[in-house]
């Protein structure tokens, strides 16, 4: 159970222009003591954006490169050594990043980008003690989670907790959809346990422009003008569902964290800048129809084949070279 008040920093931010974005991030992190409160000299810092797909650049399906750039700069300035990592469903992390305009920032700041590899780690829950999670994420000194605000056709919304599913390597995602997807509550609990195991030091949510409707990739951009940050990922997600005017019970990951007693009540969260009611969006569009989480065996096989085809045939192998 929560014994200490969590703090969620919420501010208005309307621009990805680098100077303005940098100023917004300084204000956002000021209540926590700035980036130096999370990153010490010499720390290896994983930046975990949402690198879902390279297929819809400009549709705000992934975390903006400008946000990653600004955060990486702040990490470097306090002596940290940032690297990017993710495990997209199809293709490589670098392939998706390059398709979405990340290459200039990776080259300018000399930031490596890696595809995650798996290793079994003991989770808090005995029901999920066989979680296979990214070795690179689990062994980083600091994890900064950089999700995008999006509607989600299977989980209603994807926020901080869901973004860490990217720390489950490669096709293990499809198998988790099959293994736990028959029960939405169990699948959500698996996502919560993944977040607890990764235990990000800081989550900064990209809500300047979100992705509403039939997300996570088939919706449309929506100007929100919001940045959010917290060390408590569950408190951050709880605050965001309030802003989007969605009941916590509608979002399986939030409902699961509440049942486990690790998601604070809204009244027990401190908001050093703006309260959620000052940022409320009354007409955020959710998916037209929720899809089953369980892909089923035929889809898993098809997905696996597509993954192998994309990796070894359609994409040039140079895409996978390490920086």
Describe this structure in words.
This protein has helices at residues 18-29, 65-77, 93-99, 103-109, 135-138, 160-163, 172-180, 184-198, 233-243, 252-259, 297-314, and strands at 6-12, 44-49, 81-86, 113-115, 118-120, 132-134, 142-146, 148-152, 156-158, 202-212, 220-230, 269-270. It has 323 residues and is of the alpha/beta class. Strands 1, 2, 3, 4, 7, 8, 9, 10, 11 and 12 form a 10-stranded mixed β-sheet that branches. It has a two-stranded antiparallel ribbon with strand order 5-6. Helix 1 (18-29) crosses helix 2 (65-77) and helix 7 packs across helix 8 (184-198).
Detail the topology: elements first, then pairings.
Layout: E1 6-12, H1 18-29, E2 44-49, H2 65-77, E3 81-86, H3 93-99, H4 103-109, E4 113-115, E5 118-120, E6 132-134, H5 135-138, E7 142-146, E8 148-152, E9 156-158, H6 160-163, H7 172-180, H8 184-198, E10 202-212, E11 220-230, H9 233-243, H10 252-259, E12 269-270, H11 297-314
Parallel strand pairs: 1-12, 2-3, 2-7, 3-4, 7-10, 8-10
Antiparallel strand pairs: 1-11, 5-6, 8-9, 10-11
Helix pairs in contact: 1-2, 7-8, 8-10
Radius of gyration: 18 Å
SS summary, helix count: 11
User: What is the H/E string?
Assistant: EHEHEHHEEEHEEEHHHEEHHEH
Beta-strand percentage? 15-25%
Write a brief caption for the model.
The protein has about 325 residues and is of the alpha/beta class. It is about 35% helix and about 20% strand.
